[in-house]
Amino acid sequence: MLFRSADFATQLEWLVGHGYHLVSVDQVLAAAAGRRALPAQPVLLSFDDGYRSVWTGAFPVLQRFHAPAVVALVGRWLEPRSGLEAFGDGQIQRDQLLSWDELRAMQRSGLVEVASHTWDLHHGIRGNPQGNSMAAATTRRWDPGRGYELEPDYRRRLADDLERNSTLLQRQLGRRPRVVVWPYGRYNAAAAAVASAAGMPMGLNLDDGANGPGVPLTALRRILVSHEVSTPAALAQELEIGRAHV
Predict the structure, then answer these.
(1) Do the beta carbons of residue 114 and residue 73 sit within 8 Å?
(2) How do residues 215-225 score in pLDDT, each as one tens digit?
(3) Is the pTM of this model over 0.85?
(4) What is the 3-state secondary structure (H, E, C) of 169-193?
């Protein structure tokens, strides 16, 4: 995936220069527990999917700014060592994704917190009799022979998936994730409860708006920074839009 390090550095320069503070998961959890207040205008950086460009393009900038960040990983995509791998509803070459050695190095820096992006829920499943594809993490699967997946079965499917990913990350990186980043930003109350029970009290989505006092730790909102939001002016506009939707 194309990643422009210069754009990222410019964005961080603008944030720091305009009074924003780059914070870590530890700081967010401490604030949620009432142990320590967050600084003014806190920003938590996050990267989804585990592209290798996080290592080659983003990590050097994180080091330069001493900026903490979350990197969310889909376990199934990382298990193979090489070859073509299923990627969402498409495919990707394994070498376009992070290696375990690269992840270990970033984690050792103290800047990168590895999060769960599920083991294998970053794709669509059949969600109704019409055959529509819907997000696997939030959809009760439709089976032509059985009808809709029962609620207990749906929760068990989520729990098994998240546990499998947490076990993989612990085996490879020595730590179980404390954060779940929902594929496509899609989540619901049942999914949030399952993730919390699995040791991930902090959940990231793509809901609109700022993270004010009424936003729970399980449903923290994010701004999707695409190439269209690469300039400081565009980033400032997105931040203002977010504030307007508190």
Answers:
(1) yes
(2) 999 999 999 98
(3) yes
(4) HHHHHCCCCCEEECHHHCCCHHHHH
